[in-house]
């Protein structure tokens, strides 16, 4: 089968023929029709991810159909359309992942391939209203967004929510999820064109602003009619202070990444005087995955796919993602 593999950091990903895996007991062989890229794949390639073990087939997201069943699998049939839970061994605690948890696609073989052998317990039916590419765009971004918004921040209908960096896949899905649940959702972006494109999409957004605009926090709270009950962020860094300013008293700030680095200074008085809750979040459990899929099916939500590359052109897709011009998910189709 064809697979996209990385042999060492700072090297191009290579599409090559490798043996097709065979499903072990309690595993299923999935014929992958589409798989989505995540920035994690780029960070691994650039040597900026913890615990790198290479060579490996990258990729955490995938949708396809069952090609073969391993011994002991009785709940699935060959030909069934499925999507894959993008993690391994979350553990028994819903509140946080266990020590053995890892994201699919390094060190475990990932989904940038024509076939993948997956534990049957990690498969779920593909939402019937999604095509292969849309379904592949959902797992990691949707799971991370769902846990941040509802597992951690507990977003409620009628609340005012700010999602930063709407050009990112997780942020875009988080905004869509919160709007579907009845929240008033506002967004930011550092790219005016990308912001305008996002606001034109059927995501249910109320409005947004460029965070490069001077005094953007003050301007946005005026536009929104007040400060924000929930803020969902993946940047941290110097901008975190402004997020504290635009949070309403008793508000919740949840962050699932730190693309701008650590917060240089955290003004404690703003946090305790405004009774703020600062929450961390990362990926999600199988229960989160099931709850996320229930939301997607209930509201017939469709993740945004920006561009589709053939699997053989995976290296070009990684460079396209790294350039940051996409709005929505970048997908490989086999």
Describe the structure.
The chain has 334 residues and is α/β, with parallel strands linked by helices. It folds into 2 domains: 2-138 and 303-333, Quinone Oxidoreductase, Chain A, domain 1; 145-280, Rossmann fold (3-Layer(aba) Sandwich), CATH 3.40.50.720. Helices cover 28% and strands 26% of the residues. It has helices spanning 39-45, 132-136, 139-152, 169-180, 192-200, 216-224, 240-246, 268-273, 286-299, 314-323; strands at 2-6, 14-17, 27-36, 56-57, 63-69, 81-84, 87-88, 102-103, 115-119, 123-125, 160-163, 184-189, 207-210, 228-233, 247-255, 277-280, 305-310, 329-333. Strands 3, 5, 6, 9, 10, 17 and 18 form a 7-stranded mixed β-sheet that branches. The protein has a 6-stranded parallel β-sheet with strand order 13-12-11-14-15-16, sandwiched between helices. A 3-stranded antiparallel β-sheet has the order 2-1-4, with no helix packed on it. Helix 3 packs across helix 9 (286-299). The longest helix has 14 residues, at 139-152. The protein is globular. The model has no long low-confidence stretch (mean pLDDT 96).
The number of distinct β-strands equals 18
Over all CA atoms, what is the radius of gyration? Answer: 20 Å
* Proportion of residues in helical segments: 25-40%
Tell me the β content.
Answer: 25-35%
Order of helices and strands: EEEHEEEEEEEHHEHEHEHEHEHEHEHE
Termini gap: 11 Å
Name the CATH superfamily assignment of the largest domain.
Medium-chain alcohol dehydrogenases, catalytic domain
Overall morphology: globular
Number of helices: 10
Named CATH topology of the largest domain = Quinone Oxidoreductase, Chain A, domain 1
The major β-sheet equals: 7 strands, mixed
Provide the CATH top-level class of the largest domain: Alpha Beta
Structural class of the helices, strands and pairings?
alpha/beta
Low-confidence stretches: none
In CATH, the architecture of the largest domain is Alpha-Beta Complex
What's the rounded overall pLDDT mean? 96
Number of domains: 2
